[in-house]
TrEMBL record:
It holds the Pfam family Lipase. GO terms for cellular component: extracellular space. GO terms for biological process: lipid catabolic process. Ca(2+) binds at R273, D275, D278. GO terms for molecular function: metal ion binding; triacylglycerol lipase activity. Keywords: Calcium, Disulfide bond, Metal-binding, Secreted. The keyword Metal-binding applies. Transmembrane segments: none annotated. The active site is at S232, D259, H347. It is found in: Secreted. Belongs to the AB hydrolase superfamily. Lipase family. Residues 80-419 form the Lipase domain. This is Lipase domain-containing protein.
């Protein structure tokens, strides 16, 4: 690491400075604040004391912020775009937040993103059947059955619907029950810059809701039997879909948020993020939550700590996960690869945890209600009390909210599969 790290640090810093001046000179309206903030970080005592690996990653992150500033600059702060059948999307109202959402971006045209819905059932475990909105034959000729529950898996930032974890979750679900399992792929709209990906979650959520309503109208489906399982940005896609499906007495059955994305969502209005009103039952698992400042320190923070469900699980405190400090030598190589792995390990761990709870329903994933992880570790919350304990993951819906929301549950888990509770 030593010589290579020192060699890489200098050109990265030079490239950042060059890019930052480019941002200021050509796109001063939005990027100047980003560059000023970046300058403070680069000259801070904390930055100087970090090792080269961490400094390189911070430089790359700051470059990403600069690119986001370039993308959204030069346009008016308040804008609106409308798409046929989906309505209008605006940067006004609750979506304008100068502190938590400083860069305002509108979602892209859904025809450009072109999301896909790939159906799997016990009759076609390994072969996808693509369901197409407004194409009745695509459903009629598939194995979709409105009489069984439907699970929709929704990926997050820079991911896709055919990734390894998506496949593993699909197989685990079909082994566990007779379901329609749909893998949503929106990989044409979830890339850089991050600000655009966050905006696109709104239009993808609208498309998911539109798709479910169409299945109800044409094939006798019932939104109450739908369970959306979303990771990172996918959790908020689920929330936007659920919000649109909350009409009158009707409501989406369940949403599971797997480490819902934090940046641009934490501490925003409930309309902007996943919240308990988006489904009959909303559960969230937090594995990488922390403040935005901690992202700059590269100690986590891609998720959020704010409770967003009827019940919110915080395994190992919800900020960082065991065995995420050092990457496995057989799967990750290089300075950048190792750093990226450390940065994303806790955020991605939630996917393996959720899969384990599906595949191992008899294992112990019991979590205890508690005000904080500190109280939990001090032994003050080792009984279920009047709130009752809940099982993290697939069986969470067995817990009854009884009008309560944002109930925090804590547990300690192992650092390897099946991530069973150590409490």
């Amino acid at each position: 690491h030593g010589k290579a790290a020192r060699w890489l640090h200098a050109p990265l810093k030079f490239f950042y400075k060059l890019s930052s001046h480019y941002c200021v000179n050509l796109y001063s309206s939005n990027s100047y604040g980003t560059v000023q903030f970046s300058s403070i970080v680069l000259h801070s005592r904390a930055f100087v004391q970090l090792d080269n690996n961490m400094r390189q990653s911070i430089l790359l992150l700051l470059l990403g912020l600069c690119v986001s500033s370039i993308y959204s600059s030069g346009e008016s702060t308040f804008r609106e775009v409308c798409y046929d059948g989906l309505g209008c999307f605006s940067t006004r109202g609750n979506f304008y937040d100068s502190v938590n959402r400083p860069i305002q971006v509108l979602p892209q045209d859904p025809d450009r993103i072109r999301p896909t819905f790939a159906l799997y059932t016990r009759r076609n475990v390994n072969t996808a059947q693509n369901l197409v909105y407004n194409n009745r034959d695509s459903v009629r000729k598939s194995n979709f059955r409105s009489s069984v529950p439907t699970k929709i898996i929704i990926h997050g930032f820079t991911d896709n619907g055919n990734s390894d974890w998506n496949k593993a979750m699909k197989v685990a679900l079909l082994n566990a029950g007779d379901y329609n399992v749909i893998q949503l792929d929106w990989s044409q709209g979830n890339g850089y810059p991050y600000t655009l990906a966050t905006a696109n979650t709104r239009v993808i959520g609208a498309l998911v809701a539109q798709f479910i309503v169409w299945l109800e109208s044409n094939f006798g489906a019932n939104r109450e039997n739908f369970h959306l399982i979303g990771h990172s940005l996918g959790a908020h896609v689920s929330g936007y879909a659920g919000e649109r499906l909350s009409t009158g007495s009707k409501k989406l059955g369940r949403i599971t948020g797997m480490d819902p994305a934090g940046p641009y969502f934490e501490y925003t209005h409930p309309e902007v993020r996943l919240d308990p009103t988006d489904a009959r039952f909303v559960d969230a698992i937090h594995t990488d939550g922390d403040s935005t400042l901690s992202i700059i320190k590269l100690s986590g923070g891609f998720g959020l700590m704010q409770p967003v469900g009827h019940v919110d699980f915080y395994p190992n405190g919800g900020k960082s996960q065991p065995n995420c400090n050092e990457p496995p030598s057989d799967s990750v190589s290089g300075i950048i690869g190792g750093t990226v792995w450390r940065m994303t390990c806790s955020h991605n761990r939630v996917r393996a945890m959720m899969i384990s709870t599906i595949a191992n329903p008899r294992r112990n994933y019991v979590a205890y209600p508690c005000a904080s992880y500190e109280d939990f570790k001090a032994g003050r919350c080792r009984t279920c009390g009047t709130t009752g304990c809940a099982s993290m993951g697939m069986r969470a819906a067995e817990w009854r909210p009884n009008g309560r929301v944002n109930v925090k549950m804590f547990l300690d888990t192992a650092g390897t599969e099946p991530f069973e509770s150590r409490g």
